Amino acid sequence: MFWWPLWQGGGLIGGDLYPYYFPQKVFLAESLQSGVLPLWNPWVGFGYPVLGESQTAALYPPNLLLYSMWPVNDAYNLSQLGHYILAFIGAVLLGRRLGLSLAGALLAATVFVYGWFPARICLEWAIIGGAWFVWILWGATGYLQTGRQRYLMLTGLFLGLDLLAGHYNLAFITLLTLVPLALLVPRLPSVEATPESAANGRKVQRLRLGGLGVALIAGFLVAGVQLVPTWELKSVSQRQQVNEVFAPTYGHLPVTALSQLWNPWAWYAAEQPMDQMLGGGGWAVPALTNQAEAQFYLGLIPLALAVLGLALPRLRRDLKIAHPFGWLALTVIALFFATGWPIAWMSSVPGFGFFRGPGRYSMTAALAIAVLAGASFDALLRRFQMTSRGTAFVTSLVIAVTAADLWAASRQYQFQSGPFFGRQVFYATLLNDPPINHLHESELRKYFLEQGDNTRLYAPGQNIPSLLHVSALPVYLGLGPEIYESKEIRVDFTQTDPAAIADAVARLRRFGVTHLLLEQPLDISLWPVKSIGAIIDPFLNRALARSEPYYFYQVQDSPGRVSANGGIQSVKVEANSVQVEAGKNQSGTVTLRDLAYPGWKLNPSAAATGSEPCDELFRCGELKNAESTKDSRTLTWTYRPASVFWGSVLSLIGTLLLIAIAWKPRTHGGATGSVSKT
Description:
By secondary structure, this protein is of the alpha+beta class. The strands form five sheets. Strands 7-6-8-10-9 form a five-stranded mixed sheet. A four-stranded antiparallel sheet has the order 11-14-17-16, with no helix packed on it. The chain has a four-stranded antiparallel sheet with strand order 12-13-18-15, with no helix packed on it. Strand 2 (40-41) and strand 3 form a beta hairpin. The longest helix has 28 residues, at 195-222. It is globular, with a radius of gyration of 28 Å.
């Protein structure tokens, strides 16, 4: 019901899907299908480390399978839908562990998954991170209740998978949620309630908390192969410190927007777009936000159930979850963090200042409200003492009405007729024929494949032009080298001042830009470019929803991606290497205008004497004088980062630790309150 076009081979467009995720996924798929595990993406800007940036998730097991076997659009759909199913099953099992009946757990899962996920469908991290969120909590709850090692091992494994998926923010929020969860896990009283048994129970719980800490450390170690490169990238990224480029409070949930919970139509069916209603910042939080980060609606029936379960003493006494007001406190704390207020004060605290989007803390609040709603629903079912058939009917009805409510809210209550009825989901649109299906029809892609790899394109669309098999500027990365946020690599093509144009052209040439693709034509009497033509591209125009042509130019006298005195014969760029063929009698410096990033080495050969950063940004190699015309004049740079090696060592240690945990017999007592065998 929510995503029917995806089940039928359709796709999504909008938000970060094409500017951010699809360039990564196409690159990953092409690399894997050619037998290469990509560590460096050479097509986005001057390149960036794939594992360091993390969201390509090149080592995430589902990605390794999906993108090596299926077309990119199908693989992406399977990932999204698969993690929806994974999240729903995990939420049901977690609800059962927390004391809900099957009916209550099904309702709680519906509220959490279909309340919090849909508005964020254009953000891959929300779906994958949200799925592992409930599974990590399930594993931790199972271990705290039973002491069984399998739960402990699975908790660490799930955290490792969550981190390998590259979405660290939700993993961080998950870890914070585990702290109060340890107090909210239901426990059955001992058979003999004696002071000795109570003291022993507290000792057992302390031991289990210690064991849980070991499992979480093992999860971090498993993801070490990606975490270590990320730490290396952070030191040279835009996130080195809080500034105008990186504001941790961006993407918060304004206090006024909490009224979505009980008054959704005022936000989702208003004449004014929700982004405009959210304004330029909330009370004491001047940073901007957006409708996907600030969405928080879980259905009117679940909200009413949660409120009634806490407000009515007779109903509250029938709640089978432990500490119902503890779940209310968790909701309040999570929403307080979601407003961004604590983040504004705690930006210097490790972890809190590294991420943007405090509105994501609403994930924890959504789960807490879902659990309260499920528990209250269970209490009502018990109070009315219905037959099993009646219970099934009422449960199906409540879930169906709730799902319909959440479906309508995710479509922002836009019921007008038209080709996109029911297909606009906040920033995303569901399409039967997505643009990515037309990538190989692209005339621009064919052009750059024929031109070879010594090209670089400046074009709109953030990272989308990199799909044309060309290195492209400007760049959009969540975590990337600081240069990509610099105004130096952004060019204003509307200027007419000769001095400003000369400065812009000098920068374009310095960066090796050989081609321009612009939305407006240039005055070629002012700009030193050659017009190639006006182009309507089968892929790019669809991806950028543009019906007008793009204007295609070649920059005159640009040195290109690689240059040397005497010229370059050929350049071959791959995921982890660059190969340059120089002239037979050529000597001197060869400049490769890709980032001089730790881990890149110029392979020793008869042609080259060494490599070092040049121009404060790029890589250089020195060609030796040829002793004969038969000497190879090939220079090869390869990417072999030490951070990946040491991260791999940590991952191996973490894997061995998880195996040891799984084999270790249970020593921390029996169950201390398991309310379910799920």
